[in-house]
Automatic annotation (TrEMBL):
Belongs to the HAD-like hydrolase superfamily. CbbY/CbbZ/Gph/YieH family. Pathway: Organic acid metabolism; glycolate biosynthesis; glycolate from 2-phosphoglycolate: step 1/1. This is phosphoglycolate phosphatase. Gene3D superfamilies: HAD superfamily/HAD-like (3.40.50.1000), Putative phosphatase, domain 2 (1.10.150.240). It comes from Frigidibacter mobilis. It is an enzyme of class 3 (hydrolase). GO terms for cellular component: cytosol. It comes from the Bacteria. It catalyses: 2-phosphoglycolate + H2O = glycolate + phosphate. NCBIfam families: HAD-SF-IA-v1 (TIGR01549), HAD-SF-IA-v3 (TIGR01509). InterPro entries: HAD-like_hydrolase_sf, HAD-like_sf, HAD-SF_hydro_IA, HAD_2, HAD_sf, PGP-like_dom2. Transmembrane segments: none annotated.
């Protein structure tokens, strides 16, 4: 079965503002106020909680790995509580997933977000049932760009790796697809914008309306 696997943050949904808000809650708890800006620091949000904490503390000239490790659980708690305040699916994303399903594609998710948080977000967005698989950062002992989580996502969805592709937004997704030997489709409306073309993926996606036809071209007919 032809299979399309999606990254979550920065690909299906813009989660940056809620992620940054969680990090800023930690900084306020430390008495520093908000150190990250939703407009300027969105790209860092998609590199994970520790990256956000590190960036904020670097602006104080006080990066401390022990402090980052200590604050990371608090960041996850803040984020879990307010996971869907600002987050929205990118325009056309859900329609594209539904169209793929209607055309006989299997669809799933492979994310470096902790699985429980990913499951919570998808459920709160009301779209969990659209995806036949969901592999998170801690589902397996390894995470992207190791190909194992991607292979697990395809298999769990009932597909075949040889007839699958990965839709993502970062170099991690590009490397994951390359390691799995499958095409990568990188979105140009994610945190890096059109600059993502520097990674030379098999295809770029400017709008979700084009994804079903693009997937059919890359994976062939059913």
């Amino acid at each position: 079965m032809r299979t399309v696997i999606f990254d979550l943050d920065g690909t299906l949904a813009d989660t940056s503002a809620d992620l940054l808000a969680a990090a800023n809650a930690c900084f306020r708890g430390l008495g520093h106020g908000d150190l990250l800006d939703p407009a300027c620091d969105a790209l860092t949000a998609f590199h994970g909680g520790r990256a956000m904490l590190r960036l904020g503390l670097s602006r104080l000239g006080a990066v401390d790995d022990a402090l980052i490790d200590a604050q990371y659980p608090a960041l996850l708690e803040h984020y879990a509580r307010d996971i869907l305040v600002h987050t929205r699916a990118y325009p056309g994303a859900i329609d594209a997933v539904e169209a793929l399903c209607a055309q006989g594609f299997a669809v799933g998710i492979c994310t470096n977000k902790p699985a429980a948080l990913a499951e919570s977000l998808l459920a709160k967005m009301g779209i969990r049932d659209l995806f036949a698989s969901m592999i998170g950062a801690d589902t397996l002992p390894v995470r992207k760009p190791d190909p194992a989580p991607y292979v697990a996502a395809v298999t769990q969805a009932g597909g075949q790796v040889a007839r699958s592709l990965l839709v993502g937004d970062t170099e991690t997704d590009r490397k994951t697809a390359a390691a799995a030997g499958v095409p990568s489709v990188l979105v140009t409306f994610g945190p890096e914008g059109a600059g993502i073309a520097r990674l030379a993926p098999e295809a770029l996606l400017d709008r979700y309306e084009d994804l079903p036809a693009l997937a059919a071209r890359l994976l062939g007919e059913a």
